[in-house]
């Protein structure tokens, strides 16, 4: 895993000043605050929260979602489903359109007693899921993907094929419900646009569910969600569950559309100053795109945050400093908005707040967990090293 | 590692049709052809080739570079240096400006008998490397980074500080030479621009070396290189070694500036068709940015290749089809240049040729090795599963 040996020893790696850079940090205090905020919303809205674990991909981070009894989760890969099943999670939705080749692993999880739901949006997929279920003597619980905003997959709520797909699944004992994801809400730049996206997401799922019910098909699950709409929804009547993933960490893209504040960002990457190019106005670090990812999600927002904003090691934002360039293992920091380039000496450690938490987290094998509520003016203590699930 | 168990068994995963998608593929035939091409150039130019292993990060791919006796290599992380030292490589240059905190691991490698060179560009770094060498009783071989084109770090060849840095290193027994990297050559769009970039890269390194020698300082190594300039250089008089990394795989960025042909691309990602949205002109796959990276390197080129071009499973390009969209685990393929959307059925496997091999390879834990010279009209046989080095 190439996790530095010293990082796992409380004697030799006690703070963020110790492990070699770059490395990923999770602020547990902020993560818990983000988790509680959405949990309270789901309670008020009267729906089950089914967090998407694709962002953190960590059993340790997921443990913060509940108090001992594994909660319902959403996953983006079967590797996640398998790892979380190993960790005791038994209620899992695999929210990527099912590929027939992957059904043996789905069935293996079902045989272990895991309720693993799959997703599809075509008659062809429904037919092979139904057939595989019959052959296995084990119905694969299946949701029909509804396209509420033209983001990627799914059937429009009024698609002619919807009842037929529902019928094929129902006849095989597989029909669980409908699922939609307002992916375009990431580009909803105002609170009002986000509320409208949430309403449309809810309406699309409910209309689809009602069409299936009108055809005599039972619909147990009506699942909606994205981080922006989950935080904007005002009425989820007819919806049974809410999904969101990014919200555990948040990021600059979410801050850029107002879903969170920059102070809520729970994931960062510790880097070290390795050079100065005053003639270009650059400070160079050892954190490049390998540590941050190539994600430039804020490039389309009103405020382009480059590859990320910069904080001190204790998490205090350094005003006007932005990571504007990235090679594989080099980051370039520059000043903007008339800010002068701060005097950051060689060897100084900084933290970079990412554009897109899912993408930045994916560049790392593990997180260094800290409690950011107790770290002013000091290098935060490392409480644990939390591994990520990798691969597919 | 989440490498599918079936992929390691020759009985159950014999071809690219077998492992669950997405997964990375290395065409060994093309890799060897790319390696031989640059090795022959280095021979003609009379310089040592020191490949940069940061692209493949694989001992198995690196084994293709030589015939049993580990060759000189360049690395981008100490994790690579340690993994390759474990694999018998003893002549390694760590080509990222040295952070003082990392010197203990550098010294540990030197004590193992590995000649590990570090890089720096400031008096402050030279002072602490010299001091650490004296304290350890073991000189750290050091190169001074020269900035030939304003890409990121280094001293301009005429920088006043150059002789002083050289003197500090020499007095500590650490001075090995100079190193430069024409990173801006990735944006040299014609063969003539690439030749000029190569000449400038060579001239910058040689001028810097001559300034040090004029100050009475011995310069053993004069190191230059980038994939574009390594393929364009016509005269490397005064240079001792040539570095390049991307060339083992090449990618669409390199094809876009004419350094290679698309037929030379040795890295690809196998994905599966999981949906169709004819109303939008989309084919959806299970390969998103997690499998391809967020790199959009061709976006600044004359021909934007989106997230990649699409081939059949045997490697035959599907004309006009481009991966234009990416979610975490979804890819969107669209037609361009007046091409119709091909009829690619659900469950069909495709290969995506990446913009940037270094970034796409980094999204994977391992490569599935094939011999692409024997695969027309059939699913290529998997010859081996090759692990990558991860982390820092």
What does this structure look like?
The structure is a homodimer of 392-residue chains. Residues 1-11 of chain A have low confidence and may be disordered. Chain A starts with 22 loop residues before the first strand and ends in a 5-residue tail after the last strand. In chain A, the strands form two sheets. Chain A has an eight-stranded parallel sheet. The longest helix of chain A has 24 residues, at 191-214. Chain A folds into two domains: 5-26 and 258-387, Lyase, Ornithine Decarboxylase, Chain A, domain 1 (Beta Barrel), CATH 2.40.37; 53-244, TIM Barrel (Alpha-Beta Barrel). The first copy, chain A, has 392 residues and is an alpha/beta fold. Chain A has helices at 28-45, 59-63, 78-86, 103-111, 123-136, 162-171, 191-214, 227-230, 252-256, 289-292, 357-361, and strands at 23-27, 48-51, 73-75, 91-97, 115-120, 142-146, 175-180, 221-224, 241-244, 267-277, 282-285, 308-311, 317-326, 331-335, 349-353, 366-370, 384-387. In chain A, 27% of the residues lie in helices and 23% in strands. Chain A is built from eleven helices and 17 strands. The interface between A and B is large, with 67 and 66 residues.
């Amino acid at each position: 895993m190439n996790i530095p040996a010293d990082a796992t020893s409380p004697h030799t790696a006690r703070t963020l000043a110790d492990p070699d850079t770059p490395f990923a940090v999770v602020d547990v205090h902020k993560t818990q605050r983000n988790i509680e905020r959405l949990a309270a919303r789901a309670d008020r809205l009267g729906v089950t929260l089914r967090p998407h674990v694709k962002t953190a991909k960590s059993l340790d981070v997921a443990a913060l979602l509940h108090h001992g009894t594994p909660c319902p989760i959403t996953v983006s890969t079967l590797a996640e489903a398998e790892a979380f099943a190993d960790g005791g999670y038994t209620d899992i939705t695999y929210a990527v359109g099912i590929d027939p080749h992957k059904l043996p692993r789905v069935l293996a999880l079902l045989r272990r007693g895991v309720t693993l739901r799959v997703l599809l949006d075509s008659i062809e997929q429904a037919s092979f899921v139904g057939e595989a279920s019959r052959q296995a003597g084990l119905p694969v619980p299946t949701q029909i993907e509804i396209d509420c905003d033209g983001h990627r997959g799914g059937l429009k709520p009024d698609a002619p094929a919807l009842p037929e797909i529902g019928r094929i699944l129902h006849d095989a004992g597989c029909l669980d419900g409908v699922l939609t994801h307002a992916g375009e809400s990431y580009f909803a730049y105002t609170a009002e646009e986000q509320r409208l996206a949430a309403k449309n997401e809810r309406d699309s799922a409910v209309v689809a569910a009602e069409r299936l019910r009108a055809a005599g098909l039972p619909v147990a699950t009506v699942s909606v969600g994205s981080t922006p709409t989950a935080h904007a929804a005002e009425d989820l009547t007819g919806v049974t569950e809410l999904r969101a993933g990014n919200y555990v960490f948040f990021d600059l893209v979410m801050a850029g559309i107002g879903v969170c504040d920059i102070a809520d960002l729970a994931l960062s990457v510790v880097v070290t100053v390795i050079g100065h190019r005053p003639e270009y106005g650059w400070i160079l670090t050892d954190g490049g795109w390998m540590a941050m990812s190539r994600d430039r999600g804020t490039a389309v927002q009103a405020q382009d945050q480059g590859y990320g904003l910069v904080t001190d090691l204790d998490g205090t934002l350094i005003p006007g400093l932005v990571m504007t360039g990235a090679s594989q293992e080099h980051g370039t920091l520059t000043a903007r908005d008339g800010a002068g380039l701060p005097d950051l000496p060689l060897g100084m450690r900084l933290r970079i707040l990412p554009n897109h938490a899912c993408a930045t987290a994916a560049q790392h094998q593990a997180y260094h967990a800290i409690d950011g509520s107790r770290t002013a003016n000091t290098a935060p203590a490392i409480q644990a090293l939390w591994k990520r699930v990798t691969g597919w």
